[in-house]
Amino acid sequence: MESLKKLATFSLTLLLLACGGKESEPSPADNTKDRKVILTHWVDNIIRPSYVDFRESFDVIIGKAEEFTTSPDQTTLSALRESWVDAYIEWQKVELFEFGPADKYTLRNFFNIYPADVNGIVTNMNDPSTNLDLPTSYARQGFPALDYLINGLGSSDGEIINAYTTDPDASKRLAYLDRLTARMDLLLTNVISEWNGAYRETFINKTGLDIGSSTGLVVNAFVLHYERYIRSGKIGIPSGAAIGSTGVPYPEKIEAYFKKDISLSLAQSAHQAARDFFNGTNRFTEQEGPSFKSYLDALGSKDQVSGATLSNIIDNQFITIGLELDQLSPNLYEQIQTENQEMVETYTAMQKLVRILKVDMTSAMSVTITYTDNDGD
Amino acid sequence: MNNYFQKTTSAAPLVVFRIALGLLIFGSIARFWAKGWIFDLYIKPKYFFPFYGFEFVEPLGELSYLLFAICGLCALMVAIGLFYRIASAGLFLSFTYIELIDKSTYLNHYYFISMVCLMMLFLPAHRYFSIDAYRNKKILSDAIPRWSLDSLKFFVCLVYVFAGLAKLNSDWILHAQPLRIWLPAKNDLPVIGFLFNYVWVAYAFSWIGCVYDLSIPFLLLKRKTRIFAYSAVVIFHMLTALLFPIGMFPYIMMVTALIFFSPEFHEKILLKIGTWIKVSGDFTKPSIQYPVSGSGILPVAFGFFLLIQVLLPLRHVLYPDELFWTEQGYRFSWRVMLIEKAGYAQFIVKDAAGNQAVVDNSKFLTPLQEKMMATQPDMILQYAHILRDHYNTQGFRSPQVYVDSYVALNGRLGKPLVDPITDLSKEKDSFSHKPWILPFGNEIKGI
């Protein structure tokens, strides 16, 4: 029994020694490590308000598309285009929420797979019974297909309007435009009503970090979105940077190919939305709230060499990428053809962020990345 | 010394261990099967990572089910003591074969089971309370050489002590890593969850865990402290079972620790089972001693085996740089739960003709394999060779393979693990240091 006592005293002393000399940590009493608080903030102050804004801008598209299909002319076409640009920008702020309801309906597949499959769109137009749920139809609908239908049918506005008025296929085009907006409307309605319904509770109560937990889902979706749909999709693939500095560029694979001068602003919005989500920026107050950032700070994650916090390192990299993006031409197609090196540099900065998010952030949070890599595509 | 090898002890502890081990392995196999892991881990992957020197171990495809069935059957036969020598040989070989197929699935406790099965194969665990002894009364004996039980105990002590020594490093002791990362992930557990928000709890767990490993075998050995020690074993392993996804490990250790209990304790267990299955008293109390021979090859072989077990975990001192970083000499050394490592490895294949490809790892590896590969240099090399051979058939001429790697260890910021300008297609695996592993550039003090 004596040895036992000694052992107990020994361990207790060691414990006290261990805890004594530590730098002060954020007190756990302030809830900063409470994932339920973060999940609640995400759903109530970021995710749902973002969908509300996107919904509003999408409703405008529906209205303008109706006016256009009723009387296709220069005025209604311009108005539809304007609403399309606005909604496409707003879409960038919800595309990252591809978990829960949006994942269930695979919203991204039906809203923003590009480049648009022009031949496929023609096929679908000629046969209104084609199934738009099939993977082959992904690039025949959503914003990229609308882009083609309102910006890509001719070299002048006159030609485009003719395609909806005097052309023999005019009625088919009008019908397809209708079909696409109606379909997007339905899918979006489904996703939003799930967030407004029972899923909110499910989401904020799955507080673990294991596979299937809300935080696990969000981390995976967030990193995947940045890696595959911002870094590769918007910059890496069109510039060829995704396969090294000697990669072949595919400028025709930019987002919004038929309205090239918004391609940069789409990328900027998506990037900013990711940064805002990382920082927990409240959509109502614009103030930062519970987030990856606050959670990493609460965990005390930092670079042991420089002492910089991990959240700071990440946010700084977001800022660096933002500055790289600012240097690019609003028209990424032109940028790739004239000065592709700047695209490659932007890609490199994004690649650095992806590594930090995918390795440092997930490791610090003890979340497992469960999605599989898809870099080559 | 010679005298020691003449000593005998009750066969009951070894026999209870035989029964429990057989049932546990059978349970593990059944669990593995039920979870669909045979398919996920041994049939679904397109490529495998065999151990260096064991490349002849091939995956069996659909026959994996047969291998698992044999393993489960042998485990049951060991438990009941039917055709013991054949069954225990079958158990050791089938179980070890499974573990050698793919190092992505390496776990210390699987290695532990393999080694225990190897020892059991040569121990007289079937001489008592077995179907073999029931059918052939000539082998029935309730006493066995003392060294045979002691060598098992010694092996278990080694495991604990090495696990404890491995925890005596600055990350574990001074920074509470990686528990500091892992515990807050469980802060939503009912009742105790809130505790994991406190850094001191991570320290407490780290220190207690270390003291536990270093002291528990000795406390189990002593009669006075045994009950206390065993309660600690149960509490400790139940807690780890609750906190970490470590499968059967806690149960294996709880059962294993029983071998330290007195012969009387085990005899009571056997008596209970005996009355329950209605075997005669003669069978449970035969009082025939195992013919012991003081010389003989077996004690020498066991001594040699245990010596290897002492040396193997120390082999990392032969390698430069940080063990946790290079993992050269990391496996087979009872280093459990010591590192939180995450990595990212993007491979580029090129050839002189200008062909170039960025590898999509998911086309070659399962998520588990990719996760393991990304942080372990020997697997990175194996994978590079898989890619070289694959691209050779895809029109690349003597493909060169480069990796852009990034690894974070125990809360440090990530950094490249492998030299990005080394053409891995030309590098060969061996037991010598891999010079293309980039330096850790940091120090983890410890043994």
Task: Summarize this structure briefly.
Chain A has 377 residues and is an all-alpha fold. Chain A has helices spanning 2-20, 35-70, 74-91, 101-104, 107-111, 118-126, 142-151, 157-165, 170-196, 199-205, 214-239, 263-279, 292-299, 310-326, 332-365. The longest helix of chain B is centred in the N-terminal third of the chain and has 23 residues, at 12-34.
Task: Map the helices and strands.
The complex is a heterodimer of chains A (377) and B (447).
Chain A: H1 2-20, H2 35-70, H3 74-91, H4 101-104, H5 107-111, H6 118-126, H7 142-151, H8 157-165, H9 170-196, H10 199-205, H11 214-239, H12 263-279, H13 292-299, H14 310-326, H15 332-365
Chain B: H1 2-6, E1 8-10, H2 12-34, H3 37-43, H4 64-80, H5 84-101, H6 108-122, H7 131-135, E2 143-145, H8 146-167, H9 170-175, H10 179-182, H11 199-221, H12 223-243, H13 249-256, H14 263-277, H15 281-284, H16 297-311, H17 323-326, E3 341-350, E4 356-358, H18 367-375, H19 377-392, E5 400-409
Antiparallel strand pairs in B: 1-2, 3-4, 3-5
Helix pairs in contact in B: 2-4, 2-13, 2-14, 4-5, 5-6, 8-11, 8-16, 11-12, 12-13, 18-19
Overview of the structural elements:
Chain A is an all-alpha fold and 377 residues long. Chain A is built from 15 helices and no strands. Helix content of chain A is 65%, strand content 0%. Chain B is built from 19 helices and 5 strands. Chain B has helices at residues 2-6, 12-34, 37-43, 64-80, 84-101, 108-122, 131-135, 146-167, 170-175, 179-182, 199-221, 223-243, 249-256, 263-277, 281-284, 297-311, 323-326, 367-375, 377-392, and strands at residues 8-10, 143-145, 341-350, 356-358, 400-409. A 3-stranded antiparallel sheet of chain B has the order 4-3-5. A two-stranded antiparallel sheet of chain B has the order 1-2. In chain B, a hairpin with a 5-residue loop joins strand 3 and strand 4. Chain B is globular and about 80 Å long. Chain B starts with a helix and ends in a 38-residue tail after the last strand. Chains A and B meet through helix 1 and helix 15 of A and helix 11, helix 12, strand 3, strand 4 and helix 18 of B.
